[in-house]
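Journal club side-thread
Mid-discussion, someone asked how the predicted structure for our own chain would compare to the paper's figures. Pasting it here so we can look after the session.
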Amino acid sequence: MRGLIALMLLAASPATAQTAAPTPTAPAAPTADPATTARVNELVGLIGGTGDFQAYFSPTFHAALSKDKWDAVVTQVVAQTGKPLGVDSFAPSSPWSGIARLRFEGGIVTVQIAVDPTPPHAVTGLLFSGAEVAGDTLDKLTADFRALPGKNGLAVYLLGDRAPKLVAGINPDQAAPLGSAFKLWVLGELAREVAAGERKWADVIPVGPPSLPSGMTQSWPAGSPVTLQTLATLMISISDNTATDTLVTLEGRKLDAFVAAAGTPGLMPILTTRQMFAIKSAPNADIAASWAKATPAARRAMLDADAARLAATPLDVSLFSGKPVAVDTLEWFASPRDAAGMFDWLRTKGGATALALLAINPGTDATTRARFDYVGFKGGSEPGVLTLNYLVKRKDGRWLAITGNWHRSDADVELATFMQLMSRALVLTADAKLP
């Protein structure tokens, strides 16, 4: 649904000028503009409560994140890691952006930052994207998960020759809303069809009717021809909803059969994102009420009977303006165990292309990514729903699935807070002793 793509609190990265190199030599390491360095140093005071919140961030950032929400995020960070002490290091990715490692009383917090190139060089994007908590343990992590308001789940599974083995977690068998993470099953069915010789990654089909963002293909000319691999790449790496819907429609009833065979019949029938948005819209409240109580077979019959009505429903982006909409009854649902099982299927049967697509957007900061030989990722969100799911290969060659969810029906949930927790899960499992 909402895509966890750039993993920034405000996805408004500044434009930067590029000068072509006269020869094909390796590019020089980027250097931060002094204004960017100054903003990084000011961040410590801002987190500590002495900075000027209004002047520090750009107007577009303020439009996306209120002072109250900022204070809530900072409170969570400080609760986990103590007071901020200083900047440990800053690695620029351009003159106006990069990754800072901030030193706190209880550990190191990784922050992604983007700064406006034009004066007064306000910060346009910021995310607390990783945490290394001193003396952290999986027990401490699960306790912090339990303290989250609403409902949540966390599971770490060891993957091998047999069924996934639970290493640690809470509520691993409890189904939870997935948001865009349901696209893992869409990728799985496509990979199955390719492996069976029913399709090729290079097959070309037209892009289907537009859905709401996230993504880009909703703005492309109608019927633009693209390969299946392109659609799958956009679906997984930037959570493109229109690309996803094109694949779901192509797979049809085969997708339901795949979901059933994967052991997640509760996902049946898998809705397109456009169908989900349409059913959640006010004009279709009667369909939403019936859907919540219907069996999978009855739901399929409803989709067939109301196909024209749903296709004609105007999609309103304000539907997801910050208030959860039927997240407990109208979503894609699966448990952490289900997600781990889907990752394991993709690892063992999905083929090299599927694994490569999962690794395009690792869903974490570069420092955490470097702890592993491989990181595959798919997240999902809408107001009130967050899920972050990782398939990792450790340096010792062992594979793990790490999957977490957090949802509440009375208020939105904080991406930065949840990413901090999931980053801790990654750091802890990178070197932990395993059974």
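Post-session note: Residues 415-431 form the longest helix (17 residues).
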